[in-house]
Write a structure and sequence with these properties.
The complex is a heterodimer. By secondary structure, chain A is an alpha+beta fold. In chain A, 22% of the residues lie in helices and 40% in strands. In chain A, strands 1, 2, 3, 4, 5, 6, 7 and 8 form an eight-stranded mixed beta sheet that branches. A five-stranded mixed barrel of chain A has the order 10-17-18-20-24. Chain B has two domains: 166 residues, PmbA/TldD fold (2-Layer Sandwich); 233 residues, no CATH class. Chain B is built from ten helices and 17 strands. The chains are: A alpha+beta, B alpha+beta.
């Protein structure tokens, strides 16, 4: 392997590259979906290849291939340098990477139980039992249980002397029940929507979720949603469950702090960011309770690894300090533009993608309240549970979220269930209205396996730690 | 690209390893793709990829397993078959499964263009330079992407199916930005020579110039002229929410067949053979794609099926060639959608609006509610106030929250020209529309 990585790096330098790196990747994944008692999808997938990134005349070129042999390494490296030279025709400011980084090391996700050594029968039993328990509840139209496990072996080598091997294990599982009536469709999930809970963990994640044990309650709530009251429009106090607060962080904080986005590099796709660099150190993003860190070392977090795909070590970087913007997500190129060192967030989804700034685990520090106390202190409000929809504008100001279920809060107590619940706001105003957060015991690091960014679009696997949180004077109940 | 003979050889070899299976299917996809991305008026990302994928579906009785790999060597193929056999062995029987499709003739379509496949990094950089120069000349900044892809897909199964076709596509898009304004344009085709970077740049620059100093207007219900970019988003999400047979079978679909669900002037078809889209002759089971009238003059008529959903109803003749790659929990889907043109133009529509909003495109659309199919999202890159039949001034961007079938019921005018947008594998070809009473639920800061 080292022969071929050295071949690419030497050839790139011989062809004029000031810098080059090569990543090889082998990925083994297993996916199971059970639906209404049938195992509707069960698949194993192997994927492998390599990508060469070169910097020529201050501009980037990247090429990749699924065929990892000497002649293909030579062809791909030459193509990468040809592409970089084409890029250089338009260059305005040469890419600077800061101080050279030379690291040799290895990392393996700490796991208790290798998911690929658990029998298929055991996995199916969990999913089929959960499915059966959901379908026992009268009115469930579609019961679905899903399981995914991914094992990735990757090598990073650079012309600066780095050579890093990593073995990353990722796993996710969840259930959902769908109910329908003549004019309505409602879904309830556990423990989260969009694939459930994910992390860089072993099979212990699935065991800990106890999907069969939560199936009946999940399905019962789905059925209740059909006859639930419509979420009323108005302004009120809202409490977001932990997983919804995690997605709120993702969309309204995680993306706008990506420094490549701030610099306009994502303008043509998902947009730019209102958190421009003149705001660093002085912009009030939220209330004093807003203390947010980007931390790629959170045990079990989906955004946890040893080194990023530029060979920068995983680290914890403060983003918001008592509501003030103090940091960004950076890679080597963007960090050097603001005079900082990389925060280690350059990641590529696979061998055929370039590394770009991706969220690691972007988490809010816990507060000193708890869900029970927050509800008890609320005269009139709504508790939002489990995300259903999300949308935010191209500078990350105006957002609208919907959740699968919500509950009225009246006189400090949870009341009747509400359906089609939505809330909307403007990011800094919304975070400025945060007045209570759950404590460490209610803090969960949620894994989101479906973050899209870049062109060609890359899927990002990221994490967000959050407890439940309470926000005042929020617009709710947006429907047409 | 593998070519048909090599694809057939590989598929036959893989099927040969699967003799013990009740049925077996092998799908191959090779692709060469490249994308030049620019921002701040220079190329900042520039990538190329060469990939092959093989996917094997094994049927043991009514047990099904799928395995994939990008190793096309004999060893890789054998391992993929073994993995799929292992998985199928662990499966439960799926009583709804009847059979993979048998052989059926498909039409030859012109889905491939050699010049597109040969497009170089320099060709892409030339186009990007044109866009960047136009933006700079207007004191603006250009961002965007120019992407090229070519490859081939082959599907074979143990029942005698063998289908092969090459494909190519090219697409350019740009956002041109000023300090407080922006404009968008894109163009897609199966032929790179159709891409006119200058025209794309002119359209986006023009929007960015006209949208300077946007004014805030209160949200509410407005008559809107939606450009093709925005209409395509609405149709794509409607498709995603519930046009397919599986959504219908599960009771989740708004497609109440035989009932009127939109206005008389809305006809939606799926036609993978129409050269105006991205034509491709067969689906991911190797079954011929058939033209499908989904909504005809407002009435729900047909939904896309694959072999599984057709057999589940005991009517294999329902299969109209809309399978996605296995394993597929989503169900069949239309990927070459068309909305029939009307008899108006954007200028004629403008004259029909006293007080309304011109929308260039939407951003970050998502499903707010599946039934009635309600979307939320933002306007972006050129939102304007219409007063007395003319565009009067630029507006800050709105958030919309709107039942899409209701919007299509209120489409008072439809343009006679249509535009192709690149989608998942296929494309979406739609006209612009004048829609009465479109709901904007919020407004943003710019």
């Amino acid at each position: 392997m080292e022969d071929l990585t050295a071949e690419a790096l030497n050839l790139a330098q011989a062809q004029g590259a000031q810098y080059a790196d090569i990543r090889t990747l082998e990925r083994h994944s297993e996916s199971i979906a059970v639906k209404n008692g049938n195992v509707e999808a069960m698949a194993l997938s192997d994927d492998e290849g390599f990508g060469v990134r070169v910097l020529v005349d201050g501009a980037w070129g990247f090429a990749s291939s699924s065929r990892f042999n000497k002649s293909e390494v030579d062809r791909v490296t030459a193509l990468a340098t040809q592409i970089a030279r084409a890029s250089a025709r338009t260059v305005q400011k040469k890419v600077q990477l800061g101080e050279p980084i030379a690291v040799k090391g290895s990392y393996r996700t700490p796991i208790e139980r290798d998911p690929f050594e658990v029998s298929l029968e055991d996995k199916l039993k969990v999913l089929l039992t959960a499915d059966e328990n959901m379908r026992r509840v009268k009115g469930v139209m579609v019961a679905q249980s899903t399981y995914d496990a991914i094992k990735t072996h990757k090598i990073f080598a650079s012309t600066e002397g780095s050579y890093i091997e990593q073995d990353i294990y990722e796993i996710g599982a969840g259930i959902e029940a769908t109910v329908v009536s003549e004019n309505d469709v409602q879904v309830r999930s556990y423990p989260n929507s969009a694939g459930g809970q994910w992390g860089t963990q072993g099979y212990e994640l699935v065991t800990g979720l106890d999907l069969p044990g939560h199936a009946e309650q999940t399905a019962t709530e789905a059925v209740q949603l059909l006859t639930a009251k419509q979420c009323p429009p108005g302004r009120t106090t809202i409490i977001l469950c932990s997983s919804q607060l995690a997605l709120q962080i993702h969309e309204s904080c995680g993306h706008p702090i990506e420094l490549d986005r701030v610099f306009g590099q994502e303008a043509a796709f998902a947009g730019t960011s209102f958190l421009t660099t003149e705001k660093l150190g002085n912009f009030r993003y939220g209330s004093d309770l807003v203390n947010i860190f980007a931390d790629a070392t959170v045990p079990g977090g989906l955004g946890t690894f040893g080194w990023d795909d530029e060979g920068v070590p995983a680290q914890r970087v403060q983003i918001m300090d008592h509501g003030i913007l103090v940091g960004y997500l950076t890679n080597r190129e963007t960090a050097s533009e603001i005079g900082r060192s990389s925060g280690g967030t350059a990641r590529a989804y696979s061998w055929n993608h370039i590394p770009m700034i991706r969220m690691t685990n972007i988490s809010i520090e816990p507060g000193d309240s708890n869900l029970e106390q927050m509800i008890a202190e609320t005269e009139d409000g709504i508790y939002f549970g489990t995300n259903r929809s999300w949308s935010i504008d191209d500078k990350r100001y105006n957002f609208q979220f919907g959740t699968e279920a919500a509950w009225e809060i009246k006189n400090g107590k949870l009341g009747q269930m509400l359906k089609n619940a939505t809330y909307t706001g403007i990011t800094p105003q919304f975070w400025g209205s945060l007045d209570a957060l759950g404590d460490r015991s209610e803090w969960i690091c949620w894994g989101l396996p479906n973050c899209g960014k870049g062109q060609p679009m890359q899927v990002g696997h990221v994490g967000h730690g959050a407890p439940a949180g309470r926000f005042r004077n929020v617009e709710v109940g947006i429907v047409k | 690209m593998l070519g048909d003979k090599e694809a057939k050889r590989i598929i036959d070899e893989a099927l040969g390893y699967a003799k013990e299976a009740t049925q077996a299917e092998v799908m191959l996809n090779t692709e060469e793709s490249a994308l030049t991305r620019f921002a701040n008026s220079y190329i900042h990302q520039n990538v190329a990829e060469s990939n092959t994928r093989v996917s094997v579906r094994i049927v043991l009785g009514k047990k099904i397993g799928v395995a994939g790999s990008n190793d096309l060597s004999s060893e890789g193929l054998r391992k993929a078959v073994e993995n799929a056999m292992t998985i199928a062995g662990f499966q439960q029987e799926n009583p709804d499964f009847v059979s993979l499709p048998g052989p059926a003739p498909y039409e030859n379509v012109n889905s491939y263009n050699q010049e597109t496949a040969n497009a170089s990094p320099e060709l892409r950089a030339d186009a990007v330079e044109v866009v960047c120069k136009k933006a700079k000349a207007a004191g603006l900044v250009a961002s965007g992407a120019f992407e090229i892809a070519s490859g081939d897909i082959a599907v074979g199964n143990s029942l005698g199916v063998f289908a092969y076709a090459p494909y190519s596509n090219a697409a350019i898009s740009t956002v041109i930005m000023g300090d407080d304004s922006s404009g968008w344009a894109d163009y897609a085709s199966s032929k790179v020579s159709d891409i006119n970077a200058e025209a794309v740049a002119d359209e986006a620059v023009g929007k960015a110039v006209r949208s300077r100093n946007p004014q805030r207007m209160e949200p509410g219900d407005y008559d809107v002229i939606l450009e093709e970019y925005a209409v395509a988003d609405m149709l794509d999400y409607l498709n995603f929410i519930g046009i397919g047979a599986q959504a219908l079978q599960e009771g989740r679909s708004f497609m109440k067949l035989g009932e009127k669900i939109t206005g008389d002037n809305i006809t939606i078809t799926d036609d993978a053979l129409d050269p105006a889209g991205f034509p491709f002759p067969f689906d991911f089971e190797g079954y011929p794609r058939q033209k499908l009238t989904i909504i005809e003059n407002g009435v729900a008529r047909n939904v896309p099926y694959d072999s599984y959903t057709a057999n589940r109803e005991g009517k294999p003749e329902l299969n109209n060639g809309h399978a996605l790659p296995a394993p597929n929990t989503y169900g069949p889907i239309a990927i070459n959608l068309f909305i029939a043109p009307g008899n108006s133009s954007k200028q004629e529509m403008l004259k029909q609006v006293q007080h309304g909003v011109w929308v260039t495109r939407f951003h970050y659309v998502n499903v707010s509610r599946p039934l009635p199919p309600t979307l939320t999202g933002m306007t972006r890159d050129g939102t304007f106030l219409i007063e007395n039949g003319d565009i009067s001034k630029p507006l800050r961007n709105f958030r919309f929250t709107q039942d899409i079938l209701a919007a299509f019921a209120n489409a008072e005018a439809i343009s006679r020209t249509t535009k192709l947008q690149k989608g998942f594998f296929g494309g979406t070809t739609v006209p612009a529309m004048l829609i009465r009473g479109f709901h904007f639920s919020g407004v943003t800061e710019f």
